[in-house]
Specification:
- The chain has about 550 residues and is an alpha+beta fold.
- Helices cover about 30% and strands about 15% of the residues.
- It has helices at about 5-10, 120-155, 180-190, 240-255, 285-290, 295-315, 370-375, 380-395, 405-415, 430-435, 450-460, 495-500, 505-510, 525-530, 535-550, and strands at about 25-30, 35-40, 55-60, 70, 75-80, 85-95, 100, 105-110, 200-205, 210-215, 225-230, 260-265, 275, 330, 335-340, 355-360, 360-365.
- A hairpin with a 5-residue loop joins strand 14 and strand 15.
- Helix 3 runs parallel beside helix 4, helix 6 (about 295-315) packs antiparallel against helix 8 and helix 6 (about 295-315) runs antiparallel to helix 11.
- The longest helix is centred in the N-terminal third of the chain and has 34 residues, at about 120-155.
- It binds ligand 30K.
- Ligand 30K binds near residues 207, 228, 230 and 282.
- Ligand 30K binds next to strand 9 and strand 11.
């Protein structure tokens, strides 16, 4: 069923009352020290100042790929935690409801060298003054935090979005709900493209609402770029139409290196299109399956760090994703990961994993936190649970979480306190981080900021990734249909190998003439090596599991 014609064919929408974005200019360095820079710029004169926001993008000179983006309501910014004696490049653009303006030319500012000189009397006085001021501020902060904690206790659902702490100035995203006609909301946050600029080439995959094409976009006066084109199939239902527009509206408000970028939409012609950046390596789950064991732990952690950065940004904008999973992450040629699939945050009509139906939509059970399944409490903390599952998917190169257990069995096992076992050769600190994401109590789960910082720390100290998580058969998930039986809880070697995620060796066992569970009880590391199980991590996992049968 298609939507009513009068709703989809608005004549012309003219946006009124909003100032157009302008170029930002005249930068002044107002303050600097060895770890921060404060910069102001000329606020362009606007008819309505309240609708202007600034976007600052900055990076260390020569490190363009590792930039940070901040959104501000005032024409000034303080960049903190910078390296001493280092040049930073910064560009700013204004954003109004009509969209972002052009970026200013890059401005270079340098932090001061670390202050190591001899202390003069004046400096000592300022230090004492500074210390006293600091103590005063600290006390103030403590009192403030206590008050906040009190408030939080009184309202247990507070802190549900991650839109908390120091980043309150970030603007929450705007949803389509307030618009009588969603096509209008789309106009506010996206750019309607002329179809003549868009060329569709070949189908690269299935979207929720229709095929996704690779193609190109040639905007007047700009270079031609490769894009992905999501189409809305001609047989769309009302809710598909709504979700399609919703995804574009949401995506159009985000601007972050780890969020899939919207180039524009075509809503005035059929098929409707959402045009986004092209991601050369496609979806993360298939990419990892096709490249099993080809990446180092540091590479895998860098991918996860990117996803955590994107999720930090989303949670700071009050956006709860609800379907964070490796299938919804896209990968560039340089292995940068970006979060996608935004229209789905309410209803997962077409996700094959959205199988468990409750009032108001389907839920991808294996990725979803228990409180979200049971009570539909979707928050940034439930997104953190899903992030833990994505970590597990990445470290196991695209395995299916909980293997062939049914959704009912998954829910029951989680309730009984079981969690996914560590993937093969998984660094133990990463498994610890996953398990913290799977705390039953959502308040105890880490925030995305903390996850991102931890992963960054692991990347800069890769020796931390060396110890590998032990496979402990006592906390390993066993198929509930088998657990509880005495002795060996598996009926066959394939079933056992699958449960310890070693099914790749089924044929090795068969070739060695091992075909009953009893026949494996006395295996040694040497036997395994001879059978072709050469990785020490894999030998350890198999032997540990066998040991578990004997205890
Ligand atoms: O380049 C691409 N840019 C995209 C932007 C792609 C996909 C989306 N949205 C989809 C994300 C996954 N989700 C699953 C439920 C459906 C919507 C947005 C995209 C893809 C791609 C297209 C469809 C599904 C998954 C990914 C892409 N696939 C590729 C395959 C590819 N890019 C590049 C190479 C490739 O080789 C096999």
């Amino acid at each position: 069923m298609g939507p009513a014609p009068q709703r989809t064919a608005p004549a012309v929408w003219v946006a009124v009352g909003h100032a157009a974005p302008v170029t930002v200019s005249q930068f002044i360095l107002t303050q600097r020290d060895d770890s921060s820079l404060s910069v102001s710029w000329l606020a362009p004169r606007q008819r309505s100042r309240t609708s202007v926001e600034y976007e600052v993008m900055f990076f260390e000179k020569g490190e363009e790929a590792r930039y940070t983006v901040k959104h501000l309501l005032e024409p000034n910014v303080t960049l903190r935690d910078l390296q001493p004696d280092t040049a930073y490049l910064l560009r700013v653009r204004s954003i109004t409801p009509l969209g972002p303006g052009p970026y200013s030319p890059e401005q270079e500012f340098r932090t001061l060298p670390p202050d190591t000189g001899a202390l003069s009397g004046g400096v000592i006085v300022s230090i004492i003054f500074g210390v006293l001021l600091f103590i005063g501020l600290l006390l103030g902060l403590l009192i403030f935090r206590r008050k906040q904690a009190h408030r939080r206790q009184a309202r247990p659902d507070y802190n549900t979005s991650g839109f908390d702490r120091e980043k309150v100035w970030l603007k929450p995203y705007v949803d389509l709900q307030p618009y009588d006609d969603p096509s209008r909301g789309v106009l506010e946050f996206t750019k309607e493209l002329d179809v003549s600029c868009v060329t569709m080439e070949n189908v690269i995959g299935e979207g929720e609402f229709g095929e996704v094409y690779r193609g190109s976009l040639r905007l007047p006066g700009k270079e031609c770029i490769v894009v992905a084109i999501k189409t809305l199939k001609s047989t769309y239902s009302d809710s598909q139409w709504w979700n399609f527009l919703r995804e574009a509206t949401i995506m159009g408000q985000f601007n972050h290196p780890n969020i899939v970028r919207l180039e524009g939409v075509v809503t005035k012609r059929r098929p409707m299109m959402i045009i986004t950046e092209y991601m050369e390596n496609g979806a993360l789950d298939t990419f990892l399956r096709e490249n099993e064991a080809k990446f180092s732990p540091v590479q895998l952690v860098s991918m996860l760090q990117g996803i955590a950065s994107g999720m930090t940004y989303l949670s700071e904008h009050n956006y709860v994703h609800r379907d964070l999973a490796a299938r919804n992450i896209l990968v560039t040629h340089s292995l940068q990961c970006k979060v996608s699939d935004f229209g789905l945050s309410r209803i997962l009509e077409n996700d094959a994993e959205g199988t468990y139906e409750t009032k108001g939509g389907k839920i991808p059970i294996r990725w979803t936190a228990p409180e979200a399944i049971a009570h539909r409490i979707f928050t940034s903390a439930s997104d953190v649970w899903s992030f833990g599952i994505v970590m597990w998917e990445v470290l196991s190169f695209g395995d299916k979480p909980y293997g062939n257990m049914t959704n009912q069995e998954v829910m029951k096992s989680l309730e009984d306190g079981y969690r996914l076992p560590p993937p093969v050769d998984c660094p133990s600190i990463l498994y610890e981080l996953m398990k913290s994401c799977w705390s039953h109590d959502r308040i105890r789960r880490p925030h995305f900021q903390e996850i991102r910082a931890q992963l960054q720390h692991f990347i800069s100290s890769p020796q931390l990734l060396r110890p590998v998580a032990d496979f402990d058969p006592r906390v390993t998930l066993r198929l509930p249909s088998c657990s509880g039986s005495d002795g060996i809880p598996y009926r066959s070697i394939p079933e056992w190998l699958e449960s310890i995620r070693m099914k790749r060796y089924i044929s090795n066992f068969r070739t060695a003439g091992l075909d009953t569970m009893e026949s494996i009880l006395e295996l040694t590391a040497e036997d395994l090596k001879q059978m072709g199980v050469s990785l020490p991590g894999h030998q350890k996992r198999i032997l540990c599991s066998i040991q578990g049968f004997k205890e």
